[in-house]
Amino acid sequence: PFAVADVSFLLSFSATLGILLVSGKIAAFGKRFCMGVRLLEGICENFSVSLAAVLFTAPVSMLAFQEFSVIAPVSNLVACLMFAPLLVAGFLTGALGIVWQGAGELLGRSTRSLAWMLSKIAEFFANFPYSHLPLGFGFVKVWVLCAAGLIGLSMLFRSRRRMVRYSALLS
Description:
This protein is mainly α. It has six helices and two strands.
């Protein structure tokens, strides 16, 4: 039961919830501008997943880390190119290491280099000026929670589009 209060659990849960609830809607909206170009549609889908996760993890990360990453959707879009190869390499390293330790260690070096590249991508974007906004002031936390609450409450009403606009305007 104490895991619910853990920041890593809250971030994982809220990111997954955001991806499940709104990434499809964001992708559908973005695909209107892709003009049938498959590459643009793929970029739009990846960006929508990243944006949905960022939107839903923003309140948790703001409260836990006292800052908000403005550049996160863009950096995640670039970093997602490394996720699949790193995941596959990590799985193969573990599986091969069980069967043949020497081959697992050799493959582990390439996996380590992929992880290093991913950390350099994150470091590159983190060093951009104004890539994250400090939120150490108490009123900012209250404002973020109230804005999220207003938007959340507006989702309960039938005329959602109008209520979301009003909630965003009031916040």
